[in-house]
Amino acid sequence: MRTPQRHKRMTGWVCCFLALFAMGCSTETKVSEYASQTAQQAQASEASKPQVELVIDGGTYVPNVKDRVQIDWHEQLTLREALLSTGKVKMKEDGAGIASVVDVGLDSKTRWSVMLNDKEITARQSFDSVISLNDKITVYAKKLDVGTSGATEPSVTLTIDGGDTLNEISNSYLIPWKQSDTLAGVFAEFDLVKLSEDKKRIVQFGKHELDDKYKLSLKVNGEQVQHKDILNMTINANDHIVLELKPKTSS
Q1: In a 3-state reduction of DSSP, which class is residue 249?
Q2: Whole-prediction pTM
Q3: For 77-108, what is each residue's pLDDT tens digit?
Q4: H or E stretch including 84?
Q5: What is the distance between the alpha carbons of residues 178 and 138, in angstroms, rounded to a whole number?
Q6: Closest CA to 190 of 156, 233, 221
Q7: Which of 14, 67, 160, 183 is the most exposed place for a label (fewest CB within 10 A)?
Q8: What's the CA gap between 22 and 2, in Å, rounded?
């Protein structure tokens, strides 16, 4: 039989336990609320960062290359830094212009140009100019030789794949196409591929002279091309040429 004193002690222990449990729940709730508030503040801070917008427009010449990119702005941010921060724009080695946008380069009659507000950037030093928060940056494909009809010139796509060996020259390009054009004719329009004097073989790939360690694989529209007089093969408008460099030990 429980005594009144023992009953009181048990009642006291139960009350203490309930009080501690309530305090724990309250603390857990406060921690959860604090974590939620911190996350919301971080998101709000991220959203409130000053940004400038970059518009990428391939126009009718490269219609599949279109994008809008928000770039975090800070004081002393240069145009060059803004372009490179997107991960979509590659600058030329001399820093005087754009080599490619989303891995698409252009031929000698077309180039990627940059417009800062309403002014086209033409000088190398202009890429090092500091941009303002309200500036508008546009990267667009500009044709250097526009016909009177304004129609898009026929072209072929040339993809160069340097693999792990020459990854820095991997890229895709649009090359002007002429009726009855051959592979040799296409490559002759392109600085990264150098042909022998008789136009029968490729002797240089980018800045790298080919030697016995490498072999070239060539595909046209997904089909491997292997016949002996390969560079005299006729190419049609809109063909896709893939030129791949492989070590000779590769299968």
Answers
A1: coil
A2: 0.45
A3: 999 999 999 988 988 877 778 888 887 777 66
A4: helix 79-85
A5: 31
A6: 156
A7: 14
A8: 28
